[in-house]
Amino acid sequence: MAEKLAPEQRHSFIHNGQKVFEWDQTLEEVNMYITLPPNVPKKLFHSKIDSKHVQVGIKGNPPYLDHDLTSPVKTDCSFWTLEDDVMHITLQKRDKGQTWSSPIVGQGQLDPYTTDLEQRRLMLQRFQEEDLPKELNMKVYFLARLVWIRENFRDCFK
């Protein structure tokens, strides 16, 4: 079993058929990935991260994103970078281990099934980080897996 469970996939927020951003999360942070428009100098892009709000845009224009965050973040540990043609925003969760259903309020919420999978993955990651004996980690993993099987295949157990 891996030391840390990386996000299995990025989630996409699509609006009017266009991808606004992708995101994933770990126990400690939420990562947003915004594809930058071509032919705009990188020095014109900016982002502002407050404890409960994020703003992204091109200097001199209205913000591309200007939304409240789902949960508070640690602003002193949150930052943004430009990598190739993508703005990567790292939001440090104030409450480690909390599962976010979306980075921003009311935009691109995960469906209940995917939220449940995220919660289970983060729970397993937390057990691994707490440095429990490997045997106990495996027992917790298999118990969580059995509960998931029982809940999702109830008809088989009748």
Automatic annotation (TrEMBL):
PROSITE patterns: CS. GO terms for biological process: response to stress. It holds the Pfam family CS. InterPro entries: CS_dom, HSP20-like_chaperone, NudC_fam. Residues 16-104 form the CS domain. SUPFAM superfamilies: HSP20-like chaperones. This is HSP20-like chaperones superfamily protein.
